[in-house]
Structures are given as C-alpha cells and as structure tokens.
Amino acid sequence: MPKRSTTIAVGAAAAVVVIGGAATAIALSGSGGAGDAGGEGTTVTVRLWDEQVEEAYEESFDAFEDQNPDIDVEIEHVAYADYFDKLRTDVAGGSADDIFWVNNSYFGAYADNGNLLNIDETLGAEAKQAWEPKVVEQFTRDGALWGVPQLTDAGIALYYNRALLDEAGITPEQLNALAWSPDAAQDTFLPVLQKLTKDAAGNTADAPGFDPDAIAQYGFNASNDLNAIYLQFIGSNGGTYQDGDEFTFDDPKSVEAFQYVVDLINEHHVAPSAADTNEDGDFARNQFLQGKMALFESGTYNLKNIADSADFDWGVALIPSGPAGRVSVTNGIVAAGNADTEHPEATAKVLEWLGSEEGNSFVGASGSAIPGVVSAQQTFRDYYADQGVDIAPFFDVIDGAETIPAPRGANYGAAFAVFKPILDEVFLGRTPVQEGLEQAVDASNEAIQ
C-alpha cells in the first residue's frame, strides 16, 4: 500500500510569532478540501502534528479503507511549532484539509467564524455520549460540539528516575504524599527537591558547599510551562487562570504560586535556568531522559517518548498537593471538520470512524495517547500494563477531583503572544513576579478585546 502521509514543510518561525499569528482574525473565505483521487473515489485529507499518533492513524485508516474502498484518506503532518500559523493561513486561503486537529486554546476562533462542522449536526447529538466528557465539554461552544475527541491527556503527574530517588533515600510512596506551600513550615516538596539536586562535586542543594553554578543533576523541571507546571500550582493554591475568556492569573493566590515556582529556579536552584527552558520546550524532558533530572512533571503526551527512550528504571507518581489540594489541568485534542470541505459526506464518514471505538482504538493500542473514545481507553491502559508501567497517577489526580480549566478563548493565541515574553522575564528573575503578572494580565486582556 502506498504511503498515505505527507509532511508539510514550512518556513522556520519563532514559537511566539507562530502562536501570535494563529490568533489574528481568521477569515471565512475559500473552499477547502482535497480533490478526487485520480477520478477513482474521493480523497479526504487529515492534518495533525504528532508523529506517534500519525503512525497509529496509518493503521486506523488502512482498516477504514478496507471497509470504505471508495474513500482514500491521506495524512498531512505539520510540526507543532508551525501548525497553528499555517492552519490560520490555509483556512483563510481555502486550502485547509478536510479534517484537522485543533486544541482547546485555538478552536474558539474557528468555531465562532464558521470554519468548523457542527458535530452535533454532522454525526447526531447522541454521538458524543461515547466520548470523553471532559473533552466534549472543552470543545462545546455556544451549545454545539465542534470536533470529534481524539486524545485526552488525563491529568499531570511526576515522572521519576528510580535510581536517583534511591541515591537520595526517597521512595515513590513518599512522592505521593508531598505537599508544596508558600509557608516554608508546611512545605515538604522543596526539601525533597533539594536532596535530589546535586552540583558537580556531589553536594546536594541543601548542603553548605552546594555550587549553583555547577549543577550536574536537577531535582525538578520548574519552568514557564503553562500546561505541565504553573496551571497545577495556581490551581492547588486556590488561584485562577481565567474567568471566562478573561485572564485573572494576577490574583493573590496565583501570585503566590508563581513566586514559589520562580523561586525554585532562581533562589533554590533545584530546576534549570529559564535561559535554557524559555525557548526550548524539550530541554527539561531531555535532561530527564539523560539521567540529569530526578523528577519531571508532565502529562501523558510525553509518556510514549519516555517509555521508548529512557534507558533507566522510571515510574510515575502523583503531583504534590498544595494549600487548596491536589489540582491538575486536563486537556484534549479533537479532529475538526472543515466547514468548506468539498466532500462533506466522505468527510463525515471519516469523522464517524475517528469517533468510533474501532477507529480510535489504534491510538491507545500503540501507547501513543489516551483515546478520546471512552470504550477505546482500555487499550492504552493495557499497553502500559504490558510494559510494567503503572499509569494510575495520571487518572487518579482527576478522578472525582477538582481540576483547573484548560486555556480557552477565541483570541487566546493573541493573548499568549503578548504574555509569554513578559512571563519569560519573570522566570528569568528580571521582572518581579507580581509586577510581571499584572503586566501580563493587562496586556492579555487588552489583546483579546
């Protein structure tokens, strides 16, 4: 069978510029969708950014085509750094794919501007009963669902290097009981991070001779990482990130949370410098995979990478609780239908397949991601059970628990473009936390007007 995937090459662009571009006004012009495949059937194109899920989709669409020989499905891969910039351009120019992935931060503008198929109308309102409720909720706007859930991240957890824990005399069970607090007397998280951080001479960060300019092993990945890091600290301190589409992360509890995270970097030196992490989203994960970081806080979106690449014994523990409890964000990805597709019937069939247990199960069976179809999720659990990895913390942290909402808003990208550079300076220690957060919130709320 010929290769169905195409990688779309686009010009290099800085992440901030890309995200900012994605937030500008989205035009309603053009008629997207692919043409017929050589006059013999219909070709439906599907755009995504994840290479591992792409491999699972290859198998899924092979099965789909066996059942639907009159439809060919082609995958187009665009790197995440360029994804939303190119998507905006292609939607405006009428050359977007028939189906494309979209996340919670950016779908609102496309939904509001009429660029997406209404899934309730396309597949029937009852279809969503089979899908992850949290993802359905995230992608419902103005009473309608605007995409077919494909992936759910469950919650955020702590990946740990077992050998580094053993060297420090710390057990995974102890990790599950840790709590962070702005009150040093109540904080059991920082002392553990200090024991897990070492300089080149082997001194831990709580030792008098520790040299912060020669760190050989970090305890944690504190950084300007919204999804993996600071949303959890905001939520577990009782702070807020947004109220509706408006930004609120300069409230007193959020300021405390940011101050704690920034101090882990610049005062306690248990995490890499923001000079390394502000523009390299993979730096911390690579440090963990190289055995140079003991704890790596992240989601299931990094699970397959770590499972495939780590050459040491590792596991997963709960994130620390805070003064307001243990609070995580949970995210999802949907496959959205292009409202201007030239093949609405074929596109609907592919969307229906992606929303079915059979179609979505390939994602879980490969260990790539947690399927958005509830009945297909056991395939993901089975994959890691066979690998001997206990992934329960990702699910336990959100099971019946309060979560902090994922970012949202029709103009979220415009806000991100203006607040990220400000927060970069905060994490570098160049701008005081409260002053920087106030600037970031004011600029963000102005950007979404």
Give a brief outline of the structure:
The chain is of the alpha+beta class and 449 residues long.
Describe the structure.
A hairpin with a 2-residue loop joins strand 11 and strand 12. The longest helix has 17 residues. About 7% of the residues have low confidence. The protein contains 20 helices and 16 strands. The chain is an alpha+beta fold and 449 residues long. Helix content is 41%, strand content 14%. It is globular, with a radius of gyration of 22 Å. The strands form 5 sheets. The protein has a 7-stranded mixed beta sheet with strand order 1-3-2-4-15-7-16, with helices on both faces. Strands 13-8-14 form a 3-stranded antiparallel beta sheet. A two-stranded antiparallel ribbon has the order 5-6.
Q: How does the SSE layout of this entry go?
A:
Layout: E1 5-7, H1 15-22, E2 42-48, H2 51-67, E3 71-77, H3 80-93, E4 99-103, H4 107-112, H5 119-123, H6 133-138, E5 140-141, E6 144-145, E7 148-152, E8 157-161, H7 162-168, H8 172-176, H9 189-195, E9 198-199, E10 215-217, H10 226-236, E11 242-243, E12 246-247, H11 252-266, H12 274-277, H13 283-289, E13 295-298, H14 303-309, E14 314-318, E15 332-337, H15 344-354, H16 357-365, E16 370-371, H17 377-386, H18 392-396, H19 412-427, H20 433-447
Parallel strand pairs: 1-3, 2-3, 2-4
Antiparallel strand pairs: 4-15, 5-6, 7-15, 7-16, 8-13, 8-14, 9-10, 11-12
